[in-house]
Amino acid sequence: MAEQKKTNEGLNVEEAVTQSEAFLIKNKKSIIGVVVAVIVIIAGVTMYKHLYAAPREAKAQAALFKGQEYFEAGAFEQALNGDSIGYAGFASVADQYSGTKAANLAQAYMGICYAKLGKNEEAIQALSDFDGNDQMVSPAVKGALGNCYAQLGQLDKAASTLLDAANEADNNTLSPIFLMQAGQILAQQGKYDDAINAYTAIKEKYFNSYQALNIDAYIEQAKLMKK
Q: What pLDDT does residue 99 have?
């Protein structure tokens, strides 16, 4: 029985990573839409922005497109480093068009590609370089970052990053996923009260989410393990 409990406690990190990455994959069009939407030309814009920044952003978006196709097809090596027929790769887009919104998004794609290729340290660097503050893309990237820490066994940092991502997102789409992941990590560490708090947040605040359907079982399991 004890052995079965230990098995149930095990953290399925690969599943956790897949859940976080699924946001970027399934919602890539809306993510790009968010990035494009924030490119606002304010009154009194300079000639530099008209004649240099805007065309450069358009070129960066075009360069990003082929990589998104490779990414969706699961060809992460080509998405990251390019091919032999003209596509330079997310890494090149991020470097060549540094300062554009598309290059910033390329950083997120780079991080996920590295993670899928098993290069979690490189993934952490790329994801950490992403700079955003919107309510969907930024916490999604932070959640992926937390899962990379988990892959490297840095469980304290993984749990805190996932909890931050859940708090930053504050929505029924992302927050319950990250709270569930954090709860599993905390339970594995024997931090049962913290795990219960994470699970309870799903139950009380995100009760309409998919994760809330079976959350009582996780809460009860954590309480039993605490005894």
A: 83
